[in-house]
Amino acid sequence: xxxxxxxxxxxxxxxxxxxxxxxxxxxxxxxxxxxxxxxxxxxxxxxxxxxxxxxxxxxxxxxxxxxxxxxxxxxxxxxxxxxxxxxxxxxxxxxxxxxxxxxxxxxxxxxxxxxxxxxxxxxxxxxxxxxxxxxxxxxxxxxxxxxxxxxxxxxxxxxxxxxxxxxxxxxxxxxxxxxxxxxxxxxxxxxxxxxxxxxxxxxxxxxxxxxxxxxxxxxxxxxxxxxxxxxxxxxxxxxxxxxxxxxxxxxxxxxxxxxxxxxxxxxxxxxxxxxxxxxxxxxxxxxxxxxxxxxxxxxxxxxxxxxxxxxxxxxxxxxxxxxxxxxxxxxxxx
Length: 334
Prior knowledge:
Number of strands: 2
Radius of gyration: 22 Å
Strand content: under 5%
Oligomer: single chain
Strand order of the largest sheet: 1-2
Number of helices: 12
Number of domains: 1
Structural class: mainly alpha
């Protein structure tokens, strides 16, 4: 079975309308969402993704539904890593909390545009140069090693600072925010607000994460529609998840290890796939390597879920243990 064209067009239209409605809601009513509001929105977007998977199963079959679910779980896991960098950016530029929703939404739109371009580029490369899977796999394995190293997020922000410094040298930027405006007036002269700097920093972050995540999902499916919709659903609930997790992000100290495991696994899977469809003349004489296993979708989904749940549980246990130790130390001091 194939995915019906009418289903693809209809799905994209509905998703775009939801995104536009979400953006207008933030624009008209900037506020700090409560825990209850954030929870309901996250549940809504997760349920929407599951409903979409169910519709895929009904109209296109279990293979496409399984590929979407696994791709969505992968992209959702990797997009959570964005939140750590977003927290650093918000703190670094002292973004007022009531304006953070708008910043995140603009960041998500930038991410969707960038990922859409990367997806089109990736599909074109795969169709014309299958050995690219070797490159994708090696890149993800290297990214997994880098992800497992401490302070990787701080290093990402430092790279963004260089671009921000270049921007500051070339245009006039005010010291203070003027609500959610990009332009303001200072001493009778027009100037950009710090909001522009924040958008640039978010955009650079999205670009780097797109470079990491798009090769990863091509290990799950080569269908551009599934790749794009998995990214849309992963990013749609990211803004609400940011406010829902809040201070909990600081306690998820081992989450980057879980993401490193996922990226490493996907990298190995891509290399094995490249060996399975090998066309390079200097590897096995340009013949397919039959013994290279093709890792099934269910195993990929299992590794993703186990890695994220395991890293989250380990982080919360370690955090609770430290709090108990601190309480005991405080009691002894008193």
